[in-house]
Amino acid sequence: MRGFATFLLGALVGAGAAALLTPTTGPELRDRIRLILQKRGILPTARVDELVEIIASEVEKNK
Length: 63
Description:
Number of helices: 3
Strand content: under 5%
Shape: globular
Structural class: mainly alpha
Largest sheet: none
Helix content: over 70%
């Protein structure tokens, strides 16, 4: 479980950096995160949407 927590922290940091460095809207950001996670096979498709929402909401909250 600790490895997954580390992954989530890294994903949040990376998503935050991407959101701050690129001018994208919320839906565009969610689509980009979803595409990257699916291409790399990081999470099964059923869990990708849940993780994308968590990451995007954290990024939007911290803007």
